[in-house]
């Protein structure tokens, strides 16, 4: 069976009444790796938050479907159980809840009542993935993200990705703040996930991540829209030349989401 | 102006009760003096809660008769959950309403001179020792009406004494069972750790009746002498309708340490004070508390650490959850007396409100009369953070479960401090039921 398909059509999103996304179209299929690049403040995280259902972001028009199901009608947890995953740019810290308890709840929520994972099996899986990601095993008993360094938080997002095995994952700046070794480890995690059943949208500012995870498609986001599409060579050109040539080509003056008049 | 309160029990009653219990003369005298003083004394001051209309003084029965438990197998299920029935290596006291109902203390501790017995036996058999500490060092009978009333009417409690240089590794445990709707608790716990000793003491107050319109006036006096260390854990879960005055106070000698881990799960209106007086230089006081308020109840918690000694360290951590139309108030007081140089007074109080009508308040109060000190405070009153919920839900966890995780996480830093595994587990379960 082939993987899932996430289709975003003419998506408009507002936050506190201000329009941020102004018509985004994107289709991600199982087996594909997409990368979105774009200057700061152009709506990349807004897109990922809207897909996952962050309470602050209001979808004003357009549609998001996963294998034909209307994602916009689902609660956040339903979206996750339907197969979506978002590695967040700024993961929350949750005092008093251990990383292990949290992950076990998340896994059991997918498996449903009466079908909970055995504690032994869970610990084995978690240990295995943590070792793969070269994480200190003590991190399992630490409170979720609390006091984690920037790099540790990112690794922990990838740990969750690997434990939860979603159909479509969005990785929002998973490479920010990583040293070169951590970058390799995180990429190793994502590459391990690669299969026909797994689609991925990577939001990044840097070509260096894409050296490790080669994307099939590269998109450029400006002013709340995807303004250019291409292959891996597009990312390389952006790295070398920046965004000015695109702005010139498209006649964009201010690439950020404009402020209200 | 104090309005006159007519007590249901007079001097003749107190004298008769005292002689029936075979109390030494000093104990009887203390009762009668306190009864006399009751009239003139004011009610305790409770910051931010009006208690004029609360009933702390009118009740029907001073003592009720209860059966002792012949073995641990006879314990009610709620109590079984608290004690390790399997092992015979207990240091355990169980009191049923006012009746000493079960007691074991290991031979090893007996041989070391450890005393662990109910308060009346202590008064009869260890009178001189008890007299030295009973309402002399931590709490005085004449502080206000409720301490006086307590001193006059004490009807239960326990005495723990750890001699010099004795370090106890196994916890000493007391369970005060309230299973009679008519039982009023004037319970007195007095724990003394002499020089260089160490002790872990854990107690539970537990009502097995759903509702009761009785009173609890509970005092703990904890005396920790030079270089001694006491970990004091307590979980209170008194019935709905019971009005409780709870005062746990410790005094710390030089280089000593007191660590409190307190869970207040009472279902009725509660005034709760926890004070640590850091008398000796280099002493440490750590006061942690979790509370849950629900229904219509009002609860007022004052946690106070007073620094007298130099280089003393005080730390307060209060976490409370309030739901329904309950009110929870935290007053955190760090007081540094003149001369307590290099003292460090820290405190954090947080209240999480789970419903629109719930009320929470956290008041940090710093009273500092010395220049060369450190002090810090944090206080917050808020609701469950929607972004945290979003994060948890984004992993597939349903909203109710996500809320449960956040709430338990919020209370965990204190719950995990309780020194007995079973008591910790029981507290988690009580919290689970209450916040649902
Ligand atoms: N919670 C919020 N409240 C107010 N404005 C917001 C909020 N989130 C995003 N915005 C605004 O929306 C715009 C797009 O932000 P977004 O985070 O989507 O950008 P981005 O492309 O991810 O940027 P970066 O590369 O810096 O992460 C910005 O102008 C930002 O200030
Ligand atoms: Mg962003």
Automatic annotation (TrEMBL), chain A:
<comment type="similarity">
    <text>Belongs to the ABC transporter superfamily. Ycf16 family.</text>
</comment>
<dbReference type="InterPro" id="IPR003439">
    <property type="entry name" value="ABC_transporter-like_ATP-bd"/>
</dbReference>
<dbReference type="InterPro" id="IPR010230">
    <property type="entry name" value="FeS-cluster_ATPase_SufC"/>
</dbReference>
<protein>
    <submittedName>
        <fullName>Fe-S cluster assembly ATPase SufC</fullName>
    </submittedName>
</protein>
<dbReference type="InterPro" id="IPR027417">
    <property type="entry name" value="P-loop_NTPase"/>
</dbReference>
<keyword id="KW-0547">Nucleotide-binding</keyword>
<dbReference type="Pfam" id="PF00005">
    <property type="entry name" value="ABC_tran"/>
</dbReference>
<dbReference type="InterPro" id="IPR017871">
    <property type="entry name" value="ABC_transporter-like_CS"/>
</dbReference>
<feature type="domain" description="ABC transporter">
    <location>
        <begin position="6"/>
        <end position="248"/>
    </location>
</feature>
<dbReference type="InterPro" id="IPR003593">
    <property type="entry name" value="AAA+_ATPase"/>
</dbReference>
<keyword id="KW-0067">ATP-binding</keyword>
From TrEMBL, chain B:
<dbReference type="InterPro" id="IPR011542">
    <property type="entry name" value="SUF_FeS_clus_asmbl_SufD"/>
</dbReference>
<dbReference type="InterPro" id="IPR055346">
    <property type="entry name" value="Fe-S_cluster_assembly_SufBD"/>
</dbReference>
<dbReference type="InterPro" id="IPR000825">
    <property type="entry name" value="SUF_FeS_clus_asmbl_SufBD_core"/>
</dbReference>
<dbReference type="Pfam" id="PF01458">
    <property type="entry name" value="SUFBD_core"/>
</dbReference>
<feature type="domain" description="SUF system FeS cluster assembly SufBD N-terminal">
    <location>
        <begin position="25"/>
        <end position="173"/>
    </location>
</feature>
<dbReference type="Pfam" id="PF19295">
    <property type="entry name" value="SufBD_N"/>
</dbReference>
<comment type="similarity">
    <text>Belongs to the iron-sulfur cluster assembly SufBD family.</text>
</comment>
<dbReference type="InterPro" id="IPR037284">
    <property type="entry name" value="SUF_FeS_clus_asmbl_SufBD_sf"/>
</dbReference>
<feature type="domain" description="SUF system FeS cluster assembly SufBD core">
    <location>
        <begin position="177"/>
        <end position="410"/>
    </location>
</feature>
<protein>
    <submittedName>
        <fullName>Fe-S cluster assembly protein SufD</fullName>
    </submittedName>
</protein>
<dbReference type="InterPro" id="IPR045595">
    <property type="entry name" value="SufBD_N"/>
</dbReference>
